[in-house]
Amino acid sequence: QQAQPLKGRRVLITAGPTLEPIDPVRYIANRSSGKQGFAIAAAARAAGAEVTLISGPVELDDPAGVAVEHVESAREMLAAVETALPADIAIFTAAVADWRVAHEGPQKLKKTEAGVSPLQLIENPDILATISNLRDERPPLVVGFAAETEHLIDNAKAKFARKGCDWMVANDVSPGTGVMGGDRNTVHLLTRGEDGEIRTESFSVMTKEQVAAMLIERIILALPGPAA
Ligand code: C5P
Question: What's the pTM?
């Protein structure tokens, strides 16, 4: 019998890409596999947590013992997250599409005479920022991920400051790294010291399961207050 340090704790995790419909047959998506978020869900469960995993479309089996909710768009993901609250710990690994199509076509869209796309994109809600800024139901520990293709640490620090989360995991998703869709990840954990300064801890390359185990270990060490 494994120790269950997260027993009685509610952990909420988002994972995978979102899928933003264009019309009945087309969509906008991205290359996220969901592997990192699913690995975190399994590690949290193994530590005894009550885990809700809200996932965009992925080709992975639901982790055992985890309540999985499958969604498509960013707006559906946000609604599912809000419904799943309260939580003690929220971890946002999903690669949420920044934009969606302003006017989803009820029928398959046609080419235009002018030869330009009829698509107009508008911003999606930012789930991490929304939940980090909740007044009443904000989880005591909110963790974001920053996937970057350049200036990893600087971009992640800026994002950390902007989103209002407690920790940020930065990872390089440049094509050469094989992180998107792959089984390994090289991460940096950004936290804040007592003085409010951002601290960066860098790890060497690990499997996504090892990254998940490391993160859950850190969460156990930092456990916020009593269970939600
Ligand atoms: O896409 P971006 O780099 O801003 O993502 C950083 C963090 O914010 C990730 O944890 C991601 O899950 C979250 N996010 C979100 N909703 C969005 C965009 C990003 O929750 N619309």
Answer: 0.95
